[in-house]
Amino acid sequence: MVLSPLDIHNKEFGTKMRGYNVDEVNDFLDQVIKDYQITLNNNKDLEEQLDAANEKLKYFNDLKDSLNQSILVAQEAADKVKANSQKESEIIIREAQKQSSDIVSEATNKGNQIMAEASKRAKKLAVETDDLKKSTRVFRQRLQVMLESQLEVVKSNDWDSLLKEGSMSSYEEIKKVVGDRLDNAVAQGVDSNSATADDQPVAEAPVTDAADDSGETVVIFPDNDDPHFDHNNDK
C-alpha cells in the first residue's frame, strides 16, 4: 500500500536509550512529507497528461483508421473511375475512327462517282462535238455545191441568149428555161454524193426551189430544228 503524506506525518516511533533526536527526525519527516507531496502532485499531473495523451492517441488512431479506410474507398473509386474513363475513351475513339472511316469512304465514293460522271460527260461532249463538226462539214459542202451549181446556172449562155436584144422569146419560154435550170442546179446540190465526207447518215438540208408568180427562185437553208445540225449542242 502506498504511503500518503498523512501516514508519514502520523507515524510514531518508539524510544530507546541512546536513540535518534526526536526533533531532528520530525523535521526530516516534515521535509520528506513536503517532497513526497510534491512528488505525488507531479505524478498525478503526469498521470493526467498521460491520460490526455492516451485519449488523443486513441482519437488520432481512430482518425488514422478512418482516413486509411477513406483512402482505400477513394482509391477504389478512383480505380473504377479510371477504368470507366478508359473504357469510354476507347469506345469514343472507336466510334470516331468508324465515323472518320465512313466519312472518308463516302467522300471517296462520291469523288469517284463525280469523276466517272465527269469522264462520261466529257466523252459524250467529245462525241457530240465530233458529230456537230461532221454535220457542219456536210452542210458546208452541200451549201458549197448548191451555190456553185446556182452560180453555173447564172453563168450559163442561155441567159445571154434570152436577154439578147431583139430576141423574140416569149414569157413562157423564159420561165421554162429559168425554172428547168434552177431545178437541175438545186437537185445536183442536194443529191451530190461528194457532200458526205465521212459517209455518215445525216439528214439532207431542205433545199427547195419554187417559182412564184414573179418568176423568182426561193432557196430555204436548214434551220435550228434539224436534229443533225444542232449548233448549240454542247452538252
UniProtKB/TrEMBL annotation:
One Pfam entry name: DivIVA
Gene Ontology biological process terms from the UniProt entry: cell division
Residues forming coiled coils: 29-63
Protein location: Cytoplasm
Comp. bias (Basic and acidic residues): 225-235
Chief location category: cytoplasm
InterPro entries the UniProt entry points to: DivIVA_domain, DivIVA_fam
Residue span of region Disordered: 189-235
One Gene Ontology cellular component annotation held by this UniProt entry: cytoplasm
Keyword annotations from UniProtKB, A to Z: Cell cycle, Cell division, Coiled coil, Cytoplasm
Family recorded in the similarity comment: Belongs to the DivIVA family.
Protein name from the UniProt record: Cell division initiation protein
Lineage: Bacteria, Bacillati, Bacillota, Bacilli, Lactobacillales
